[in-house]
Amino acid sequence: MSERPPHRVGELTVQLADTTGAPLAEREVEVAQTRHAFGFGSTGFELIAHANGERDDAELVEDWLGVFDTATLPFYRGDFEPEPGRTQTDRIRATARWFVDRGVRLKGHPLVWHTVKARWMDPLPLAEVERLTFDRIRRELSDFRGLVGSWDVVNEAVIMPVFENEPDGVPNAITRLAQQRGIVPFVHEAFTVAREADPGATLLLNDFDLSSDYERLIERLLEAGTPIDALGLQTHMHQGYWGEETMLAMVDRFARFGLPLHLTENTLLSGELMPAHIVDLNDYQPASWPSTPEGEARQADELERHYRSLVGHPAVQSITYWGITDAGAWLGAPAGLLRADGSRKPAYHALQRLVRGEWWLPPTRMRTDAEGRLRVSGFLGDYRVTAGSASAGFAIERSGSDSAFAPLVVR
């Protein structure tokens, strides 16, 4: 089955010239896509050690870059700043530069969250917690400006003011602050601070609670003028694939806000499914949770259906798969596209066939006309045209056929 959703595909005429302005008429050239406009993402956590020269993960690098073009980097405060002022800034910045050098877009996750907490903040007065929280937003957006282009500013705000599941029994500082300030004023100020710190960043509100509670929170925030650029929707499907109908009905509910939708955290299992009676996914962590042949076949089928349906929805702008490998996977679940030994599952091949096959323009020989013009059709995104030893980049940015000519100097 081959599907090219019309809203994802465009046609552009470029007019090629050399550095003197002379058209490259009747010339054989090569055109290739270099990146999708749509964000095909995964976590970049697994490559931090490699990017910092601590380990050689060349095969994992090849697998990761063979499918994905957008990475989520970890900014969980409890890990990022385990002690006041002792941060992982240099290490994560080196990782960010490594990804950017390879054409990968980046998102930071998250700036404000009540989980993976900085325990040293818990006993502080609320006024100090507030200052530290907003200063943290300013610091990260300043330190990573030009590298990290989007941020989960607030994560899981629906449950934030009532969160009680603390392993140490000590109420966390962020929940106390959300209770005291009120969730709407608190989230609004977090976004306002983020916008001031980096006006060009894409700012997301992200949540796993996709109920009407999240919809009402979004409504209240938008009424307050909160500068939200996109909505993050988490779909960890450890208990089974929801199916296209249920997934698209959920997407439609959030599309009504008129903001781009990012499916920020997606998982599909290649082993035994989590029992349906489990309410909090964190409560189910068996001693062994292997990937199985039957589960891998199911995962591949469901993954392809999942991506086809979401790419087909015009409101969806990005899909992030939550971890390429089973090694170190969240909850120990067999949710990766690679097995723990690094071998590729059928789901990896299925996604690669879509992202870098059916929805991709590989290096293709073409010929300019007498005026140096070349008509290129493909998925929206970035492209490169090469003529001999010279080349130039261009982008197909709009769906449909673009009647204007895009002049391009090949250097």
TrEMBL record:
One Pfam family cited in the UniProt record for this chain: Glyco_hydro_10
Protein name: Beta-xylanase
GO BP annotations listed: xylan catabolic process
EC number of the protein: 3.2.1.8
Domain (GH10) ranges: 54-354
One function term, GO molecular function aspect: endo-1,4-beta-xylanase activity
Family: Belongs to the glycosyl hydrolase 10 (cellulase F) family.
Keywords: Carbohydrate metabolism, Glycosidase, Hydrolase, Polysaccharide degradation, Signal, Xylan degradation
PANTHER family the UniProt entry points to: BETA-XYLANASE, GLYCOSYL HYDROLASE
Record's catalysed reaction(s): Endohydrolysis of (1->4)-beta-D-xylosidic linkages in xylans
Xref: InterPro entries: GH (IPR017853), GH10 (IPR044846), GH10_dom (IPR001000)
Domain of life where this protein originates: Bacteria
